[in-house]
Amino acid sequence: MYSVRRRWITGLLVALITVPTLSAANSAGAASGPTAAHGAAGVWSASLEGVHGVSPDATIRQIARVSVPGSGIRVRLGNPFGSAPVVIREAWLGRPIAPGAPKLVNDSNKRLTFRGARSVTIPPGQSVVSDSVPVTVRAQQDVAVSIYAPGSPVNDHTFPPFAYDPPASYIGTGGNTASDPSDAAFPGYPVIPGNTSSTAVGYHPGQTWWLDLVTVDRPEAKGTLVTLGDSITDGYNAYGPPGQRWTDVLADRLNALPASARVAVANAGISGNTVSVQPNPYDPTGQCCGPPAPQRLDRDVFSVPGVRTVLLLEGTNDLGGGDNAPPASSAQVIDAMRGIADRVHARHLRIVGATVLPMCNAAGSTKENNRLAVNEWIRTSGVFDEVLDFDAVLRDPADPTVMIADLRNDCYHPNAAGDAVLGRFIPLSAVVG
Predict the structure, then answer these.
(1) Which CATH code fits 221-432?
(2) Where is 229: in which H helix or E strand?
(3) What is the pLDDT of residues 320-362, one digit of tens each?
(4) Per-domain boundaries in the chain
């Protein structure tokens, strides 16, 4: 067990699936290898959640916003859910001229290779990491990854984000336009809802295909914080000003620290995800919400270069239940969290636990009592190296079964103002390690 255990219990007053990672491959197959150079760090992530259809004969230009400065960029492309190979015929990486834009800075678009090859095949259940691209990025700067892989199973991540705030993608008008730095083949309209898996031409806020991790070989940070969570971490329904997820607010604050003290933030939230292994409450197909957190630890957390600390915010979907699964007991959720913490500590990493936010459960109801029991365990068990009492921050003092009205979007989700409060509340010492 990890030897240093502290707890932050502060209020405010007013997903085992092992997905082998392939470092590169040629156009006919793939081979195993290291994920990245020593000292590298994950600077952006968007965990893949399911497979939805087949990619059209068009290029998809995806926008990712890195959390810290660095140089020497690699991207990871995955096929964890496909039953057929993903064949990447060509891939390029460049810098957009403006946040969220599909048009790229002149001469910034660089070909991605995989062990020197210009194409790569990703077998079912596998992933690949590109060779390093000699590109330097600033904190909160976008990179655009353009991929041409017609006829491949679409392993995706989808959620409704803020307008023109990554992650996002543009599906091209047709053919291989990955090397084109202009936006001629990548129209910004129509805007396709981010929570809908779609292959239609246009702008897809919140949607990425195959791309689930961006790393830098030489980060201006000492490592990476991975935020493992559900829709609240993903940013679902966090609408309104100031227009950032709580993880992005936290990343901005971390960037004010010296490079030797800061960590990058890699967001591993998936809307609808559960912390315990059970049928997903909302989706009988198993393709909407990613594998339960224990089954995606290897892919979404442990494989991230430079990971030092894991921040766990899950349990809402388990405790709430749905048409496809009954509400979970507090014991089920606690056992799952304990198991995750044990595996994190076995890797000599730190884990921070956040309490479960109010869910509009009636006072005295079984659901509410289970939520309170889980939160009391998080606060007092000593299992976590730090505790962030998100419940105390956002609950309404007049009715602690709900969030403060001005800070919530609905019963489960904060709005953007609520996310801003959470992102500012977190003591930096709790997450930098």
Answers:
(1) 3.40.50.1110
(2) strand 224-229
(3) 999 999 999 999 999 999 999 999 999 999 999 999 999 999 9
(4) 49-213, 221-432
